[in-house]
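Quick start: what a row looks like.
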Amino acid sequence: MPARKPIEQKRVTARSATKDSAGRPIPHPDNVRSLPGCGSSLPDAPEQLGVEGRKRWEWLWRNAAWLSPATDVAILVRLCEAEDLRVGMRAALADMGFWVEGSMGQMRPNPLIDKLRLLDDQITRYEAACGLTPAARGALGVGEVKAEKSSPLDAILQQAATRRQA
């Protein structure tokens, strides 16, 4: 199944403000509201996270309101640990350089380059699983929320706000 096109991209190629390029309805921009973040009651960052991982942890909980501390902590820990690992790999690559000496004395690309690319791919998969890319938000239905109707997401957000206040 092809990836869903995010609403933001549909708007660029749309026939009008309320119809996509195929004539299907899309939410009118006036009927869309932003989702609130976690606010000031952030879950504590795990001890093993470094500086960049902690920054990412805080950003995730403040900006991705659909994430739940009850169910999403494990994947977010992995995502933040991967961010820390990425920073370390980039620093090591900067120290060692892009070219290293091979087993026969020849110059070859640093193997960290391939490892960094693989890690970036893994981070992208974590982000997609958490709804942090435009297409993933569209698939989860959290990229845009219609303000004129009550949705299951509204109920979840209201429950989360009530729990935070208690």
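That is the whole record. Residues 7-154 form one domain. The radius of gyration is 21 Å.
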